[in-house]
Structure formats: structure tokens, C-alpha cells
From TrEMBL:
Gene name of the encoded protein: Rgs8
Name the UniProt record assigns to this protein: Regulator of G-protein signaling 8
Keyword Transferase: no
Keyword presence, Membrane: yes
Gene3D superfamilies given in the database record: 1.10.196.10, Regulator of G-protein Signalling 4, domain 2 (1.10.167.10)
Length: 182
């Protein structure tokens, strides 16, 4: 048994190294074309330093700006937590639903994708909010996800947003817009 231990230790060290590489996924974006929607080179040229700086004013300013949203989504992907933003966006889209027939189907899809226990992109909400949302979806209205969406918004605002503002993605993007001016 003892001759196997050094071999196991070597294998464990190799596994730790591989896992370490995966967990330290870089949040640097040297090529911003990956995060900017539609005609990325033109988009980056149109993004002003002032606009990108305004994203730090508030989380809602960031979410309301097309390129801010794209940069924040790219950042969340580096943290493997983009489901929060995707849920928030799905709720925003859901609130625009005008067809009663589509309302129930959309509500069920959002619930199954983000809220239900073991959902493929389950968001982190407390039991009471999950159960309230489950009941709301039984008789869906445009406000049936409001509490869950509010919790996820608050979580992103308090947790992910400050990290985004300190991230290499955001600081590199600001640097690129400033360099373009000089």
C-alpha cells in the first residue's frame, strides 16, 4: 500500500493543478468584439469614455446601456453566474407580454429554467420566494416574478456589480475608450 501513496499524491497534485487552472478563469478581454453586440468594431468606436464611466454611477445605469449590459454579461460568464442576469432579462421580457395565451407558457418556461429546484440555470433565492413564485405561476400575471426578480437584482447589485467595476474587463474597456481619444 505505501508504494502507491507517492503515485496517488502525484496524481492528486496534477488534478489540483488542472482544477486550479479552471477555477482561475481570466476576466480579461483584450478583444472586446466578443462582448459587444452588432458590428462590434463600430460599437466600440461609438462607446465613449463618459458612457462607460457612467456605468459606475449605478447598477441600473449599467443595465440600461446596451454595451454595459454586454460587458456585465461577459464578466458574469467569467464567474459562471450569468444565470442571474439571464433570469432578470427574461423577467423584463416577460413583463412586456401582451397575449394572455403566451403569458402562462412563458411563465412556466421561466420557472422551469431558473426558479424550480434543480432548474438548469437555477438562481439563488430563498425558499419563501421560490414558493411564492411557484404559487404565482399557477395563475400568472405580469408581476408573478417581481419578488424573485427583485431578489436577484439586489444580489447582483450588492455582489457582482462591485466586482465588475473592479474587474479587468471593465478597467480594460475604460482604458480602450480613453486610448482612442488620445
Amino acid at each position: 500500500l505505501t508504494p502507491l501513496l507517492p503515485h496517488l499524491d502525484h496524481r492528486n497534485r496534477g488534478m489540483r493543478t488542472r482544477l486550479g487552472c479552471l477555477s482561475h478563469k481570466s476576466d480579461s478581454y483584450n478583444d472586446f468584439t466578443a462582448i459587444l453586440p452588432d458590428k462590434p468594431n463600430r460599437a466600440l468606436k461609438r462607446l465613449s469614455t463618459e458612457e462607460a464611466t457612467r456605468w459606475a454611477d449605478s447598477f441600473d445605469v449599467l443595465l440600461s446601456h446596451k454595451y454595459g449590459l454586454a460587458a456585465f454579461r461577459a464578466f458574469l460568464k467569467t464567474e459562471f453566474s450569468e444565470e442571474n442576469l439571464e433570469f432578470w432579462l427574461a423577467c423584463e421580457d416577460f413583463k412586456k407580454t401582451r397575449s394572455a395565451a403566451k403569458l402562462a407558457a412563458k411563465a412556466q418556461r421561466i420557472f422551469e429554467e431558473f426558479i424550480d429546484v434543480q432548474a438548469p440555470r437555477e438562481v439563488n433565492i430563498d425558499f419563501q420566494t421560490r414558493e411564492l413564485t411557484r404559487r404565482n405561476v399557477q395563475e400568472p400575471s405580469l408581476s408573478c416574478f417581481d419578488q424573485a426578480q427583485g431578489k436577484v437584482h439586489s444580489l447582483m447589485e450588492k455582489d457582482s456589480y462591485p466586482r465588475f467595476l473592479r474587474s479587468k474587463i471593465y478597467t480594460d474597456l475604460l482604458s480602450q475608450t480613453q486610448r482612442r481619444l488620445s
